[in-house]
Amino acid sequence: MDMANGFEEIERARDLLRDAIESLKEGFALYDDDRRLVMFNQQYAEMNKGVADLLEPGLDWEILMRETARRGIYADAIGNEQQWVSDRLANGVEFIQDFELTETDGRTYLVSVHPTQLGGFVVTREDITDRKQAEVEERDGDLLIRKVLDASSAVVTMARIGDGQILYRTPAALQMFGPSKSAKEHYVNPEERADFITLLLADGRVDDFKLDLLNANGNIFPATISSQLVDYKGEEVIVTSIIDLTVQKEADALIRQVMEAYPAAINMTNAETGKVLFATPDTEALFGPADCSKSYYADPTERERYLKDLWKAGSLKDRRMEFIDANGRRFWGADSSRLIKFNGEEVIVSSTRDLTDELAIEDELEKQREFLFQNEKMSALGELLAGVAHELNNPLSVVVGHSLMLKEEVTDPNLTTRIEKISNAAERCAKIVKTFLAMARQQPSNIEPVDLSGVIETAADVVGFGSKSGEISIRQHLPANLPPIAADADQITQVIINLIINAEQAMTSSGRGDLIELLAEAKPDTGMVEVTVKDNGPGIPKGIRARIFEPFFTTKEVGEGTGIGLAFCHRIILSHGGQIRLDRADNSCTCFRIALPAADGLKSEVDEPVEPISTAADLRALVVDDEIEVGELNAEILRKEGFEVDFVLSGEEAIDRLRTRKYDIFLSDLNMPGVDGRQIYDALVTHFPEMLNRTAYITGDTMGQSSLGLLRDSGLPYLEKPVSPSDLRILVGQLLADQKEASDG
Description:
The chain is α+β, with helices and mostly antiparallel strands. The protein has five domains: 2-127, 2-Layer Sandwich (Beta-Lactamase), CATH 3.30.450; 152-248, Beta-Lactamase, CATH 3.30.450; 262-354, PAS domain (Beta-Lactamase); 448-597, Histidine kinase-like ATPase, C-terminal domain (Heat Shock Protein 90); 619-744, Rossmann fold, CATH 3.40.50.2300. 43% of the residues lie in helices and 24% in strands. It contains 20 helices and 27 strands. The strands form six sheets. A five-stranded antiparallel β-sheet has the order 2-1-5-4-3. Mean pLDDT is 81; it is low at 557-563.
């Protein structure tokens, strides 16, 4: 019974021991005198995860060491396993206290070994990874702060509260105060430091405390200090930053000098009263030497609204307000302001810009934007008109050509009358097509010195002959010494006719107005001549004035207007390097003003007479055009002039004919499928250079970039479709005359 109780006591003691070991926060392991593992707690196993699978009672210490080295748990054992194990075993087991051991996974343990009286030993392990990391971070943080402060230009000291002993100072502080040991040496009056410390202890910090200090040379200087109580290694210390106000005062004086010299109207005023605290010379030049900023405003209530918005936002940028300058002139200005605290009061710091010139520039830019906008629309219209004209050119060439040829051949009066009607209608269509092309071009077709008075008189006569109402009179005011303009006379005549007809139609339909005035005036300072077309009719409604030059915009009924007339005028005038605008100063009438360049130094071109086509010798011509009717017409015209003509429908056929026959004249279309005008020109340059002065183009496309490029690069003469027989005869006569001149030379 006693033995059983004894075993129970032993077992109970073992349980208590195991429980005590498991409750330890450290890893614990007991080895016997044979260095075999007797027992260990869970923390020990977790701290030896790399060999946790081996931890069983009876494990030999040497086996544990060898397996630890083999598995690479410790960095210093990797690649040196045998030596590492030998060193451990050779040293034996002796008392080791707080040995730091770092494993390859980065964990750090504090290991202690304690021999037992029975020959065994106890191993304890404590995980200190987090503590080590915190120490590193604290050390790195202290080092970083010290590096930052050492590199800083700030004057900073750290000192004890009681004796003022300086624990740290920045290089700038060392330079300012020298190698003093106590912060007390920096104060001129000890009482001031006492007052300062009292405030600091009460609030934990003091900002902008003004006092006198002593520098390293023993000189007194005004300063402001800001300090805070901090805990440093368990001790409360004072960290202080010092600013030398001597430098600041010098800077303030410099800033004031710069501000007074700065070419801007800068102002400092009391927000509540408007009292002027500071004003640059530019401010005084703008507003005069005012004592109160309230006198700046054209509307006295404007400052109240401005101040309300400034209080709400804290700052305002480029607020537009109307002011009164030193001479009493009202002007619009842009004010940028900010509220600040100055000597305990709210102060407005502001700058004001006179916007008079800027607004004038904005107005001019708006006009230029409108000009570009209209130009873009006219370009779109030009592309449309060029396309329409191109499609009409070929059939019109046939109608115009054949009608004119019939007119020359037929002698029957009745037929002649009909042919003339067809011819007149066809020529009218041709003029319309060429007008479309003129609108589509960037440059007018025929610039020469033009008598503007004659153009205006012609336009007035044309409109007068066709006027449907005898109640509207046209009055002209044309000075005798009006200089000529550089223009295409037909196009400018058409523009003025268009404006007169528009005015007449507006007055007739509204029943208001009976006078159209045509005026002209030279503008020597701009090198322009201004034409004015003005009526006393109903005027143009304000809501549509900005759109009057838009293509296809019209207020007329369907069928009565196309909306192209004013767009046409706009495009033609711009192509002449001029401007056309609606004068908006008078809302009671319509007044258009046209500015055109004067013809200074421009000489009039006189067409030299062209020799008639000589048929004395046999002449041979080659005509190529993919439009069979057009090509046959041109061939027929040449045949009537005595030419032997070959007509082909493609560029390939034309080049083949040039290889086999010699021609005196070669007329080629530009845009053809397959071999086009460009490829024909390249073939002439390469294989038939003698044909270059015998070749001309007959084309309906002078708007495309490719066609324009070819006509410019080749320099060959050309005719635009529709082509009249007389135009074709003149062109061919010129080619023959050039050939004769070259051969005679």
